[in-house]
Amino acid sequence: MCGIYGVVGQEEASNLVYLGLYALQHRGQEGAGIVSSDGKMLYRRRRPRLVSESFDEGSFKQLPGDMAIGHVRYSTTGTTMDKNVAPFLATGSCGTLAVAHNGTLVNFPSLRRSLEAEGALFQSTMDSEVFLHLAAMEKGDSIEEKIQRSLPKAEGAYSVLFLTESKLIAARDPHGFRPLCLGRMANGQPVLSSESCAFDLVGAKYEREIQAGEMVIIERNGEMTSIQFAKPKERKACVFEHIYFARPDSFLFGESVYKTRLRLGRALARECNVQADVVIPVPDSGMMAAMGFAEESGIPLQMGLIRNHYVGRTFIEPKQSIRGFGVKIKLNPVRSVLQGKRVVVIDDSIVRGTTCRKIVKMLRDAGASQVVFAISSPPTVSPCYYGIDTPTKEELIASNQTVEDIRAYIGADKLVYLSLQGMYDGVKGKPSEYCDACFSEKYPTKIELPYLESAQGS
Amino acid sequence: MCGIYGVVGQEEASNLVYLGLYALQHRGQEGAGIVSSDGKMLYRRRRPRLVSESFDEGSFKQLPGDMAIGHVRYSTTGTTMDKNVAPFLATGSCGTLAVAHNGTLVNFPSLRRSLEAEGALFQSTMDSEVFLHLAAMEKGDSIEEKIQRSLPKAEGAYSVLFLTESKLIAARDPHGFRPLCLGRMANGQPVLSSESCAFDLVGAKYEREIQAGEMVIIERNGEMTSIQFAKPKERKACVFEHIYFARPDSFLFGESVYKTRLRLGRALARECNVQADVVIPVPDSGMMAAMGFAEESGIPLQMGLIRNHYVGRTFIEPKQSIRGFGVKIKLNPVRSVLQGKRVVVIDDSIVRGTTCRKIVKMLRDAGASQVVFAISSPPTVSPCYYGIDTPTKEELIASNQTVEDIRAYIGADKLVYLSLQGMYDGVKGKPSEYCDACFSEKYPTKIELPYLESAQGS
Amino acid sequence: MCGIYGVVGQEEASNLVYLGLYALQHRGQEGAGIVSSDGKMLYRRRRPRLVSESFDEGSFKQLPGDMAIGHVRYSTTGTTMDKNVAPFLATGSCGTLAVAHNGTLVNFPSLRRSLEAEGALFQSTMDSEVFLHLAAMEKGDSIEEKIQRSLPKAEGAYSVLFLTESKLIAARDPHGFRPLCLGRMANGQPVLSSESCAFDLVGAKYEREIQAGEMVIIERNGEMTSIQFAKPKERKACVFEHIYFARPDSFLFGESVYKTRLRLGRALARECNVQADVVIPVPDSGMMAAMGFAEESGIPLQMGLIRNHYVGRTFIEPKQSIRGFGVKIKLNPVRSVLQGKRVVVIDDSIVRGTTCRKIVKMLRDAGASQVVFAISSPPTVSPCYYGIDTPTKEELIASNQTVEDIRAYIGADKLVYLSLQGMYDGVKGKPSEYCDACFSEKYPTKIELPYLESAQGS
Amino acid sequence: MCGIYGVVGQEEASNLVYLGLYALQHRGQEGAGIVSSDGKMLYRRRRPRLVSESFDEGSFKQLPGDMAIGHVRYSTTGTTMDKNVAPFLATGSCGTLAVAHNGTLVNFPSLRRSLEAEGALFQSTMDSEVFLHLAAMEKGDSIEEKIQRSLPKAEGAYSVLFLTESKLIAARDPHGFRPLCLGRMANGQPVLSSESCAFDLVGAKYEREIQAGEMVIIERNGEMTSIQFAKPKERKACVFEHIYFARPDSFLFGESVYKTRLRLGRALARECNVQADVVIPVPDSGMMAAMGFAEESGIPLQMGLIRNHYVGRTFIEPKQSIRGFGVKIKLNPVRSVLQGKRVVVIDDSIVRGTTCRKIVKMLRDAGASQVVFAISSPPTVSPCYYGIDTPTKEELIASNQTVEDIRAYIGADKLVYLSLQGMYDGVKGKPSEYCDACFSEKYPTKIELPYLESAQGS
User: Fold this and answer.
1) What are the residues of chain A with a beta carbon less than 8 Å away from any beta carbon of chain C?
2) pTM for the whole thing?
């Protein structure tokens, strides 16, 4: 999962992109980067850190110009190598070109092999780099023509921003897996963002989504041309964006994320026939669904788990005395809320089950007399190949165990998942318009075997 | 405001204190320090940073031993100087002694002057250092005797932990301004903490508060002796701990903070006669009061403001284009919740009014048709001299303006403060048992003019 | 100017390359990098710093394997961009390939343009990256075949090391501009180094130079094959290596650098008819020539200038009181040696003249009654295009002014340069075997206009 | 060993002290600190690093004012604790006072114990801190009076600078063990330095030494008063300053260090009856003595060992393949100078013998047919208690072994030490005027047992 952001026609363009990335930080905490242009040259800074840690006072002096794009990167793999932090940038026949990409290309391995056979040299193992090579190898009189011709070769999920010395180009794959929004700054100039929540901070207004298969070319003066680079296929918006990934203050695929989550909670309450004294969210992921659940069920909402806002990147556990912190450092139970109570805990999904198991134990230790776990989505049975970094099938507990097995493992008195039907009631969309492969194993495209790493380091 | 923590009889004592400080981080983000003892020597590490940034893997090797105390420091003054980060430590007639202190000594200036006249040399400008000099200058056969005799000379608020090579000593001032709790680790050994919420993480159980005027001497083997070093005066527990400072999952002055805040919210709803469509908290400070308010008033609770969890220490604003972020980087409105709605916003207090003013504007910009600001405490009219870092009277808006003036300044349609009576209904205590000087200007002790800085640096 | 180093068949290969780079640090202080191979993957670490600052305890764990190459980089341009620090590394049709290069390709601009036209994308602005693209675009069954075929396309100076997962390949241009030596480790395995001085530290023995136009392919087991990839042209060894660049403890182009510099000093003494009381070197560059000069002239050698060994990378000058440090921070005069004396100062060359001017003033201030400046090489009249980072003609003082003008500018009583004939007496070589373009403006090859930067950053 | 520096009446005082410390860096590489005064407050910055690493552009803004003192610290003990880096600073009855001290107090343990008994609290384990407590505990109407009365209580070696908000005070112990010079800046204001070499860089002129037992009080306007705070005892200048410690461009105890070392070398040549082909120095410590030796003996001087100027603080050795670097990373032999030659190596002293042993092996490996080691001072048999950080008697090889044993251990063909008589010929002083305890075990004062550490950390 990643977030992308781009502005045109702005003094301090790189500083504005930094603000946008700040608001998109939830989409990727492993790295942040910005490329700016002053009409003559591109300037880059990228770091394997949070946005707030990647840039300082001096950074924006080294990122001059009135156009810029940025990227926040998410990865579950151990250490993020510097070379894999976006935006990517290279110089070739079409001048210098930078790219920031959200999504995953399912045909990356075969694309890369064929590009290598033509003599292309790769600097990273990220599929995003492919966009640069495809454009460089393509025929065309202009960079936009090269990009337009090369994009149809990429298959899978991509919302992507390109920056040259004089243009910002945005495009979205024909299925429209990942979001990409167009807004307007106070001075009328366009701004692009993965989510609409990143418009508020810079004072921009949401205008519309970039359409599936659409490519938008923005000149340095803000002039905008829209091209359909590929015929749109059936929309396959990622339903998990609504369930978990996007921020609740975003407006996504035509709907408010906040309200969608309330509805998911209400649908869950209807499906979950349970007697209880309190409904509590796993903060903050289960918050809105818990509110919807409380409202529909009439069971009062309480904050039975308090989130520690000061959790850092690293946490040093004692070697011998106490072990297995993890969730305990992030969440603390409120005994006065839980003591002697029948509790329904709400969260958005279960991945490995280890966190849920710790939460159940924590609630019981704090005196809960009954713990029901209710999940505002169906069982996650299969990995995502379109940009969300879910673990393999082996690691996904619902891929290998029944709901009853999972309940026993996490130690809850009852475990309820929302049905697929209930989920679609919540998102208010037609099932055919969403990709729900993580719940249904129905992948909208072919999937290739992964590309393997052959070099490491800085 | 500060937080203190201490353990005895624990392998990896410093790592456990680190865990405790992690859970007390909300009491001070400007600095963190730990002193440990292995029975032979004291070891210290302190940094002007968050707990998570102040210690790494190697830190605890340099903090060996089975006893340790720690401190988190709060300060509104610009840069925190290294030399002012606690615990303080010095060597003298009584060996090496470290001190971690929560509170403020109202007679620090006169105490310091008289100690200097006797030849004492000060390294910092913190009142906490006084405890070391008082003990060193005191007569007595043992360090505990020296401390016992010297404590009555200190006036004001102090919950304090001392560490020598072989003892941990805890004490609380005769008014009991600041909290200090005693718990038990799984192995039965005592643990001390500013708040009970820091017991959960290390698996300790809350036992009792250290009493006002009580001094507890704990030997390396855990043996504990309690002494009344001064006759307790009338209890003057800080009511603001319940309203704002303490974590909701703590048990404080005999009451659950969480439940107290719910009651404050309910009392506020009763006093606040208002028609509205939604109640929203300023997250997270107004959360529990908003829940109580919603419950009592029947107006539905919504999360109309979303908190950005990735806000760093520094934030780089654009120089020209957009200015005056501040709260915008921390909070974002949810348009779908606010559009066309009559909103009641709940927070715990108003200091300067600037944040409230920005929030009101933000809510109106997001479409709120009416904004009522309701505060779960009375107007803050006077600074605290007992350990909370409130600004001067000049800066406290309620010290200089009427409620109507404040309402006009922040731009709300209505502004409601909880009454003193309503507050005491909420905290369920006798007014005489609390210090409410910030609301009433009735200070339980004399106050001296402040001590001035004469040196700066590392 | 740069230094390169490579080993095969060594446990801790990367640590040994680090030692080699340490000994080659004088050839480049702007950056250091190492790439290692464990037979399966390449690992890289590079930093824009000194060798001692670029690697720490943990670095070599992340550079595993029994083969490695390294590079130290020199640059006069302001900040070194991370992306321009070698070794370069990329993955393509021929697997993953790394390159470390000493020298400059005179046809880099045209080579790059034609590679870009074929679709190649460049990550840096360094000519060294061209070697990777040339090999990737070349036909051939193996990587060594591709390299062998592609090298003849490069024109200019290059001593170069390649590393693949399973081979180390060394090559030297047909003119042999820059040195490259082959040695043997204690275990008989080959080791490659820019200079022989870097063999001593790792306990290796000097064996021979890599020949002009020779390419040596070394398998992981140490097996070595030598190929002549191009017919050697007339040898054009860089004479400035002997005069200034190489370390005196190196054996270079068949001669001891130390002895060569003594002979240059003797030749200078013969040409420089001067009466004086003391000969002093500019430490350390003029040391050996000064010893030769003293010996030949009979004038006693003294250390009239003391070098400060603790000069850091940055030096903070007072803003108003005193200005224009520069050489004063590095060198200090010894008044007791200079007072009332007629002094001959020896250095290897004059670039802009500003340092000499400061030295003359410093010597006079310290009481020298007469200052003769004697230079152990002819006037530097023209820039180097083969790897030494001399300034442009505009900046080279001898390019624009007569010897008398320079003397007047630096304020010396007399200024003597060694003649071209004297220089060749010193180096004991045939003039036709050396490139002396910086003194003669006779460039052995064509020179293209430089390639311009189009992107900056990390 | 340490270096101290102070200026008065200078804009950018702290920046000038930084320059002075730069030139005194050879006297201490373990820490650097500066305290400045703007007439109202003292400002401090200190770091456990080199001068060049301890201060940056912004540092001097935080060290404002027209008066400043500084200190460079030397220590052989593993890690330097922050708290032990000078200058020390504390606030007491006499306001805020800072101190920078070169030397060691032989009665520190008893002084500290008696100060502690009076209630003093110590922050460090450095004897320098004692000066602050002595002054604070002393009676007197002014700070200068308190210092004047307290200094006679300190026994041993001390050249010391004090800074208050409005005065700089310099003093030197009655024996005059360590140097302390007074100079004049271009604007006529006084400047103080451990060595005269630190005057050149700031454009100051050497005026005189501070006398033994003298105390100089300098007002903010530069007005200077000299007081004899104690009757001078017999001068006991440290002879080792001339032999090794001071920089050759300093003028010390009335003599040029450079010329003194030439004379020591000449004296050594006269005592050392040896046939050889070349004389080589161990650079740079043996350089001047080697020049004197060569001159007197007629044996030609060569630079047979080349010093690597880029040696960093840390150096990472291979774990298995090669071990025991140490001197090899700093020095490299020049085979062309040594091959087949009978060599005399000159150094200033032998401490443990391990370095000499490695040098002898290195020279033989490079082909030397005979290696004579000649030392320009007598055997170092006993530790210094006056400020030079020599090892204990157990570690001093000459304390436990005969010259013949040492020769055998280091593997030289012959080992020659300069005689005591020869040394005094070299320094041109009366033996009674020097402390030569490290050679003679005749300590001019009583020595107490050392004070032990009781706390560690930051």
Assistant:
1) 35, 41-47, 62-63, 89-93, 95-96, 116-123, 132-133, 136-137, 165, 453-458
2) 0.90
